[in-house]
Description:
Number of strands: 6
Strand order of the largest sheet: 1-2-4-6
Distance between the termini: 43 Å
Low-confidence stretches: none
Number of helices: 3
Number of domains: 1
Largest sheet: 4 strands, mixed
Helix content: 40-55%
Structural class: alpha/beta
Amino acid sequence: MPFDARKNLLVADTLLSVEDAEVLLEWLLKNPRGRINLSACTHLHTANLQVLMAARPKISVWPTLEPLAEWLKTALDKENKDHAKNDTGR
Length: 90
């Protein structure tokens, strides 16, 4: 199982494959205020990144693997800035 679902928290396993993106999306749709713990994650297929970019959930813990954490923070921060820019019309 790639995820451990708790009340309002989804804890990811080390590897999130393309198949896991559907599970992630379903959980986020059912838990729109849910948080994601990615501390154990060492590989994340880009399908999961697309889900995270679309849903924009709160990441409670970033991956401990620094290159992955930086990649995700950069991708998700850029996405958030682009959405804010579009919302303000600038």
